[in-house]
Amino acid sequence: MKAKIYFYILLTTILLGCRKDWLDYSPIDMYSAKIDYIDSNAPRHLKVAAVSIQPDKLDKQVTLNLIKAMVEKIKTDHTDIQVIVFGELILEWYYDEETKDAYQRIMSETIPGNSTDFVKNLALTNNVNIVFGMTELDNATNNLYNTQILIRTNGELVKYRKRNLNETDLDNKITAGNELVTTEIDGVKVAMFICSDMQSNKITKEIADAKVDVILHSLTSSTDMNANISYVGTQMNTWIVFANRFGTEGIFDYTGFTHIINPAGTISERAIGNNAYVYRNLGIFNK
Fold first, then answer.
1. Domain holding 80: CATH number?
2. Residue 40: strand pairing partners
3. Residue 27 falls inside a structural domain
4. How far apart are CA 12 and CA 6, in angstroms?
5. Could you report the per-residue pLDDT of 255-267, keeping only the tens digit for each?
6. Is residue 259 part of a domain?
7. Which one of 22, 150, 153, 178 has the fewest CB atoms closer than 10 angstroms to its CB?
């Protein structure tokens, strides 16, 4: 399987030619029969949810209240939930075509800040790890980052800055991060991950080499995926908790498609729509 995967990576790199370190899945998507993945007898488990919401364009408190409502709903539905993942830059619109970086700067915050304090209180109150994306302002450099935050049940913050920027990030004057971030949640090794990071050969190879158990993937995508098979899952041989957004934001329409993808590349759980979520008790095998 590994040889086949790296052949696909090499083939795509050749096809793309001068686009350095950018994998385009479309020529090699795996549209084939669904593969069963049996994990009930795994030695370790992690109970996760991925959520799609529609953020308010200007009022972050409205969006934070939506996050609060979804955290409380999931906690009620699944009292044993350990991790809840929200989308990329989920506190605001991903892109405003009229003002671009000026909009992102208005919506940006330092970390820690008011928004992370709000979500920290949610994590503590509900005894759940919460992952979400936001525009980070670094006061020391005045740079903007497309950042994913993990807030633990004890209030600790773990931060990851998107590394493989796309054209929209560049329009937003986002600065690229420079390091892989992995950590553990209840003994399960996880990697933090944002959207087009999955199209970097370098980054996906780093994650494969790190032998993580679960990828916590916040993204923004208006292009739906095959309902059964994901090239991304097979590429890194790991669970992927795949959280998106919903709604119309200027020139973009988002269906809210959200997945949990197993290491065989099968989409184990799938939802579409606003305030939708998927839940799964992930079985973790030793690597």
1. 3.60.110.10
2. none
3. no
4. 10
5. 999 999 998 888 8
6. yes
7. 178
With respect to residue 21, please indicate whether it lies within any of the assigned structural domains. Answer: no
pLDDT tops 50 at residue 131: yes
Both structure tokens of 212:
């993580």
pLDDT tens column, 199-215: 898 998 899 899 999 99
pTM of the model: 0.89
Say which residues have a Cβ less than 8 Å from residue 81's Cβ, sequence separation at least 6: 47, 48, 49, 74, 75, 128, 279
Judged on CB neighbours under 10 Å (0-12, 13-18, 19+), 9 is: middle
Bigger pLDDT: 10 or 218? 218
Q: How far is CA 112 from CA 116, 136, 137, 194, 270, in A?
A: 6, 9, 10, 19, 32
**How many residues does the structure list for the chain?**
287
Q: Mean of the per-residue pLDDT values for the chain?
A: 88
Give the pLDDT score at 64: 98
pLDDT in tens, 6-40: 334 433 433 343 456 765 544 334 445 567 789 98
Cα distance between residue 44 and residue 285, in whole Å: 7
State the pLDDT confidence band at 237, using cuts at 50, 70 and 90: confident
Q: Has residue 6 been placed in a domain? A: no
- What is the identity of the amino acid at 49? A
Local structure of residue 212 (DSSP, 8 states):
-
CB contact at 8 A, 18 and 54: no
**Amino acid in the structure at residue 55:** P
Q: How is residue 119 written in tokens?
A: 């979500």
> Phi and psi (nearest 5°) for 286?
-70, 140
CB 208 within 8 A of CB 287: no
- Give the other-Cβ count within 10 Å of 106's Cβ: 12
Q: Which domain holds residue 112?
A: 42-284
